[in-house]
């Protein structure tokens, strides 16, 4: 019997046969679970918490307050799973619920029910532990789902920090703070390319950021143009962006819109939008439905100073006569230190309305 405050296991670590773990497009469990487990262990030990850190090979009996087994899920077809929790006893439920509440503040994808597979409910590690609080298998997400993997991969150490916070709270020892939203540090300008971790390309679920030459039925219906006339495809710091001129719109100061005019996607009254909001409009293709675009997050970068904002999509426009690709909120333009008709870059952001990331990020 070994005693400690906590047991943290990196699932599948070290196995060359048998349950070697899931592999996904951006990495596998054997690579990812030790990163999460190591970071959590490091932070907890620095705070004076006694942690046993194990790989896939457990033996004997661990006498701890909480045991966690770090995993990522795989599923077929991909993206049919998400985050989940496994445990073998109803006394674990309180801790499971607390983890779910904490992680839900950040995790933007779905949750599967607790113990939704027999691997979760009958995890082999349970028989090696004796816990006073709980033993949990934590599946942090589905790494075979590209969208989830893109969210998870840059956050592996951050997940370790979140886990350390959770465990510290659970055992009331170490007093480790919640790391807060990933990448939103107190000094946003310390890393010049901080925005790169939010970058999510020019295409999502088959929808694209409009750029020059792309046919767009919505543009045709609204303005009688078959193809998008503006927006150049460029590369900036190894990432592809759509580049073009921008201006600001909506809010109290916008004299060009009627008092009761609303945003086509969100229905918000444009002139009543708060001064400090971050939103945008582009000439989207609505053909496959507007739901995809509503409050979708975009990353907008000013290549002159590397400042970047995350904005939400609320409306369609501007008119092509402006020769601009995008309208932004006054605050977004100000945060980017840009002015009307400056050339900016845009792409999808990997955040969404539940990520609690909006505004200046770099
Ligand atoms: Zn696993």
From TrEMBL:
InterPro entries: RlpA-like_sf. This is N-acetylmuramoyl-L-alanine amidase family protein. It comes from Lyngbya aestuarii BL J.
